[in-house]
Amino acid sequence: MRCNEIKIRSATTKDHDAIWKIFHEIISAGDTYSLDPRMSREEALAYWFRADTQTYVAELHRQSVGEAVGFPGTARPSPTIGTKDWVIAGTYILRPNQSGPGSHIANAAFMVASNAQGSGVGRAMAEHCLSEARRMGFRAMQFNFVVSTNTPAIYLWKQLGFEIIGTLPGAFRHPEKGYVDVYIMFHSLLS
Amino acid sequence: MRCNEIKIRSATTKDHDAIWKIFHEIISAGDTYSLDPRMSREEALAYWFRADTQTYVAELHRQSVGEAVGFPGTARPSPTIGTKDWVIAGTYILRPNQSGPGSHIANAAFMVASNAQGSGVGRAMAEHCLSEARRMGFRAMQFNFVVSTNTPAIYLWKQLGFEIIGTLPGAFRHPEKGYVDVYIMFHSLLS
């Protein structure tokens, strides 16, 4: 397994274009997030940069993107956003899952650009996120809505210590598979 | 068991005072909702009347309120809000639990004034809510955050057909009991 070069940092307004590009790609596919596929750029950025939310981006070295993707017939893709050598390949958010007396449990959401699937960006963001959540003093992390057909994500969450603590029958309307189950996943951060 | 007279209807802006009174009483107690006890009236009403939300109030006949409460030494309490004969004793909201491909599952939240506990208002609102959710075409109803120490609510939800489908360990910081578990409850509405 090759280790791609990945940098993770807090997002700024300069990252809006790159984030919206990834966000729009993922909600348009409509197979992993319970978000309206017709959500506007403005609504999406308001959601991703909510006042109680920490927003991060993952940058992948351009050469790594090319190698990870390997489009047939092209030496590498041509990402149009990012610096010369680094391209934003993923983004994630971290926030309290509830407010008030429930605010000690974190929630997070992750998005990886389709041309960076398999590059390790998802795993790197998840590990970064758990570390950030611990640093901020959260006692656990909860995912409220993991679509059961999203097997790569579930595999990763389990590897990182998440457990399925509940199943919501038919809670997601998959564009091809119809109503499918949704998992609630939980990971204690207490050592 | 005496049947109190209860009327349930859609809330209007004229109900804001009565709703805020109940809302504030409940979040100040801080033992059932994961909402900031210091939430302002404005924030509370924005949350309770969100654009995707249906808001209802339950009115209890004044004589029924008096009988249900039975304050020692008083013939009946003196509710200051409501019409001459009917007083708003509870409020609930109904909305999609998720947006987009998760919007076919409903979510709801209920609040009963402390001086109307035991009057049947909670049960009447819950039954009304399930009926409304069916009418609107929701396929199920999900409660995301039922505090495990809230035994009267859990008893009622189970009687109405809800099941605990997951337990969140220590997800609620109870003002007296410390970290207590939280249940996720689910009720299919498919006949």
Fold and architecture overview:
Two copies of one chain form a homodimer. Chain A is an alpha+beta fold and 191 residues long. Chain A is 28% helix and 33% strand. Chain A is built from five helices and seven strands; from the N terminus they run βααβαββαβαββ. In chain A, strands 1-2-3-4-5-7-6 form a seven-stranded mixed beta sheet.
- Evaluate the radius of gyration of chain A: 17 Å
Q: Main β-sheet of chain A: number of strands, strand sense, barrel status?
A: 7 strands, mixed
Counting DSSP E segments of at least 2 residues, the number of strands of chain A comes to: 7
Largest interface: A-B, 37 and 37 residues
Fraction of residues in helix of chain A: 25-40%
| Spatial order of the strands forming the largest sheet of chain A | 1-2-3-4-5-7-6
What low-confidence regions of chain A span 5 or more consecutive residues with pLDDT below 50? 69-75
The general outline of chain A is globular
Average pLDDT of chain A, rounded to a whole number, is: 91
Sketch the topology of chain A as an H/E string, one letter per element: EHHEHEEHEHEE
Intertermini distance of chain A: 30 Å
Strand percentage of chain A, roughly? Answer: 25-35%
State the oligomer.
homodimer
What structural class is derived from the secondary structure elements of chain A?
alpha+beta
Number of helices of chain A: 5
